[in-house]
Write a structure and sequence with these properties.
This protein has one domain (3-111). The protein contains four helices and no strands. The chain has helices at 3-16, 24-55, 58-83, 86-111. It is globular, with a radius of gyration of 15 Å.
């Protein structure tokens, strides 16, 4: 298992446990855990976006990547929050992250 896959599972586990936090200290600890997981994920994601940018256009690719991260993700999470109870949003995001990791890993290793 690669470091970025471990980071996805760490972040997914941290996000999934947020609804169980009873204090501010527990939230800080959980989001520190999520931050460690994301620190393992982001360099790989940026490298993939840059690699794809060589084929199309690096500026366009990074712009699309940033729009997905900064705009689309929070809008989808907010829409889910409006439709469901807040705690379920954390579960859905966590499951999505872990399933995306498994599918992405399968597709990348199959491509090699």
């Amino acid at each position: 298992m690669k470091l970025q896959e471990i980071g996805c599972f760490i972040a997914g586990a941290g996000v999934c446990t947020v609804p169980f936090a009873d204090s501010l200290l527990q939230l800080v600890e959980l989001f520190a855990l999520v931050g460690i997981g994301e620190a393992l994920i982001w360099p790989t994601l940026r490298a993939i976006a840059i690699q794809e940018g060589h084929q199309y256009s690096q500026g366009s690719m990074m712009g699309i990547f940033d729009i997905a991260v900064i705009l689309i993700g929070p809008l989808l999470a907010g829409s889910l929050m409006d439709m469901l109870v807040l705690r379920y949003v954390f579960y859905i995001i966590s499951v999505d992250l872990i399933l995306s990791t498994l599918v992405g890993t399968f597709l990348i290793t199959r491509g090699k």
